[in-house]
Design brief:
The termini are far apart. The protein is built from 10 helices and 21 strands. The chain is globular. A hairpin with a 4-residue loop joins strand 9 and strand 10. The strands form 4 sheets. Strands 1, 2, 8, 9, 10, 11, 20 and 21 form an 8-stranded mixed beta sheet that branches. Strands 5, 6, 13, 14, 15, 16, 17 and 18 form an 8-stranded mixed beta sheet that branches. The protein has a domain of 192 residues: FAD/NAD(P)-binding domain (3-Layer(bba) Sandwich). Helices cover 32% and strands 30% of the residues.
């Protein structure tokens, strides 16, 4: 039976970050991921300024488009804030994935192309029985398998979202067009938000975030200024979706199982800082493993995700209330408060 100090379920960016953190700490690391090759995902693709130092310490420096701040627009109202902690970066998720995979390979992370069937927790190790028939043991297991985490369910950490709670979904597509701004642009409509992220010198990502029935094309058409900019631009990727938000967990650790990234619980993509948060969680999880105190991770998870949880829940409460269309006008009226929120999430 193959054995690793740290066994990671999920080969997305956060899972690979966790495995790289383990190798940098002198631990052996394996990743179980059923998808072969480059893994894409529907997301805004904007890395907040705080995410870039976390990547650099992993030895990963992917190339993208500098982002200097965020602009919110709604009707005749707009508010812009330039990041005070340096530039962020827009880049295709595929480019980020390949850069992390290359670094993981360089450090000797072992990739197993398979998927979790059964998780068996023991006092001093965890065993994963794979769909392909192999059993793999880890001294510790990190679940980084996304919004619909099998690890969180099998470990008994998943928590059902209440029936009456609003669920939201994301839809993303890229267009071949030169970016017209060095800012991330967020457009508020009556029911959805549209995120424009420059990801290269000749390509922008367009992500629509809203209720289940949200129509991508109709939402764009409802924004005349944006629709005019995108008119005639050729799609450069397939349209893809993600969700639902939120996903909840009762706790982030149980025995020798730790959850990171979306698998650990995710409020909503409205603030666009999921990767920064996931990288910080991966680092915290491995630090606790190195200390031999996985139970400490619950506190560390709460510490690194506190701003995200508090501010995002506040925004979502407003976005699902009659005050939704007042968000941008209020932000433009109180730019200092808007800047404070942006900076807290971007750092």
């Amino acid at each position: 039976m193959r054995t690793f100090n740290v066994l990671v379920i999920g080969g997305g960016p956060v899972g690979m970050a966790a495995a790289i953190e383990a190798r940098l700490s002198g631990l052996s690391a394996g990743i179980i991921e059923q998808r072969a090759g480059t893994v894409d995902k529907a997301c805004g693709e904007g890395l907040m300024p705080g995410a870039l130092p976390l990547l650099e310490r992993l030895g990963v420096t992917p190339v993208g488009r500098d982002l200097v701040g965020v602009t919110y627009r709604s009707g005749d109202h707009s508010v812009t804030h330039r990041f005070s902690s340096g530039s962020g970066m827009g880049m295709r998720r595929t480019i980020l994935h390949d850069a992390l995979r290359s670094r993981a390979n360089e450090l000797g992370v072992i990739f197993v192309e398979d998927s979790l069937q059964t998780l068996r927790s023991h006092e001093k190790h965890v065993v994963v029985d794979c769909q392909g028939g192999e059993s793999i043991r880890g001294d510790y297991l990190i679940g980084a398998d996304g919004l619909h985490s099998t690890v969180s369910r099998q470990a008994g950490l998943f928590r059902e979202v209440s029936v009456g709670r609003t669920k939201r979904y994301g839809i993303r597509q890229h267009f071949q067009i030169a970016p017209w701004s060095e800012f991330i642009e967020v457009y508020y409509t009556k029911y959805a938000e549209v995120y424009i992220t420059p990801v290269s010198n000749d390509q922008v990502g367009v992500a629509v975030l809203g209720p289940r029935a949200t129509d991508f094309e109709a939402t764009i058409a409802s924004l005349p200024e944006l629709a005019a900019r995108l008119e005639g631009a050729a799609p450069s990727s397939q349209r893809s979706g993600a969700g639902s938000f939120p996903q909840l967990t009762a706790a982030r650790t149980k025995g020798r199982v730790l959850l990171v990234g979306d698998a650990s619980g995710y409020v909503d993509a409205i603030t666009g800082e999921g990767l920064r948060l996931g990288f910080a969680q991966a680092r915290a999880a491995v630090e606790c493993i190195v200390l031999g105190q996985p139970q400490m991770y619950e506190l560390r998870w709460r510490q690194v995700s506190r701003d995200f949880r508090v501010l995002t829940r506040g925004l979502i409460t407003l976005a699902n209330s009659p005050l939704r269309m007042a968000i941008v006008p209020l932000a433009s009226r109180f730019p200092s408060l808007f800047g404070f929120i942006v900076n807290r999430l971007a750092r």
